[in-house]
Amino acid sequence: DEIPTVVGIFSAFGLVFSVSLFAWICCQRKSSKSNKTPPYKFVHVLKGVDIYPENLNSKKKFGADDKSEAKNKSAMPKSSLHLDLEKRDLNGNFPKTTPKIQSSPGLENLSPKHFAEKKKDSVSPDSLKSITSLSCEDKQDKLGTLFFSLEYNFEKKSFVVNIKEARGLPAMDEQSMTSDPYIKMTILPEKKHKVKTRVLRKTLDPAFDETFTFYGIPYSQIQDLTLHFMILSFDRFSRDDVIGEVLIPLAGIELSEGRLLMDREIIKRNVRKSSGRGELLISLCYQSTTNTLTVVVLKARHLPKSDVSGLSDPYVKVNLYHDKKRISKKKTHVKKCTPNAVFNELFVFDIPCEGLDDISIEFLVLDSDRGSRNEVIGRLTLGSSAEGTGGEHWKEICEYPRRQIAKWHMLCDG
């Protein structure tokens, strides 16, 4: 019985020894492989160099000696630009070095103020005034000329407008002294047809050559229409600059004989300002049990004429604020071509806090315009901190909850 046990012990020790020896050999091979450098081509591919060592005969190889670098530095001419990489700052920029000026007896006595005075004296104030006045007059008086053609297609019962080009536009960008013009065209008075051309970059004589065809317009109604061209300059960072406008009444223009070529001088935009911004009738009701605010936008009256046609397409945007942060927004439907709109639309807002101390509501009356950004006709704010009728109306709904209270409010400038 003792012999098999001894054999089993020896075999177990032998197995453990052989396994440990095999593991040691594998580790040695792995370490020896890691110490070896990969092939030269593989190193350069990792570094992003797309050439192989065979093609580096006439070029500087990586890992060159310092002696060769010193020779190259000495061989460089003195006039060549040399950048010392060790002198760069933390951001990787080179420090600005001021060139040394040899001092002379005449220059030592001159101060920097003396140089500034000499520069100022080189251009007289009178010449500056004349230059600025001329540039301002040119910008104000000369806005360019618009060239276009009109035609009526009797077979298709369509009205065709071709915007050809504009010449002599003023420069709206003072840095590049150019403009990025484009044209918006509207058929008045209904404002149903609104189109615009593409933007042409950096030109004062844009050649658009774009044709717009309007279907469903009877020839008998052409005499009642007016074409309104708005010439603008595109601005990527702010609102587009208005260069001018052209207004063409079609009364007395005969299109039965064929295409009619026309040109008109671009005039300054006529902005009609009214004494007031109109009034808005609002009804409010605060439900303290459900903590909700019911807002009814009833009517608007005496809205100003915000378009050339004298008609507006108003709608009301309602914004609810809590601690000066907008938490909800609603808007009414658009009422076409009227300065006295009847909305009668109800909105219910959930109040996130108890009471109306930190709540305010804003009403924006806007003119709907599909071709451009909607213009704000007037603004109204109701809240505890509001002045005038806005504050009085808010105080009443807080004192008399569950009661619907309606009031007229004057609109302020948007």
From TrEMBL:
Record domain C2: where: 142-263, 276-409
Annotated compartments: Cytoplasmic vesicle membrane; Endomembrane system
PROSITE patterns per UniProt: C2
PANTHER family registered for this protein in UniProt: SYNAPTOTAGMIN (PTHR10024), SYNAPTOTAGMIN-4 (PTHR10024:SF114)
Keywords (A to Z) from UniProt: Calcium, Cytoplasmic vesicle, Membrane, Metal-binding, Phosphoprotein, Repeat, Transmembrane, Transmembrane helix
Pfam families: C2
GO biological process terms on file: calcium ion-regulated exocytosis of neurotransmitter; negative regulation of secretion by cell; vesicle fusion
GO cellular component, one term: axon
Polar residues composition-biased segments: 94-106
Region entry Disordered, spans: 62-82, 92-111
Protein name: Synaptotagmin-4
Predominant cellular place of this UniProt entry's protein: membrane
Bilayer-spanning residue ranges: 6-27
Biased composition, class Basic and acidic residues, residue ranges: 62-72
GO molecular function, one term: phosphatidylserine binding
Domain of life: Eukaryota
Record membrane topology: Single-pass membrane protein
Family in the record: Belongs to the synaptotagmin family.
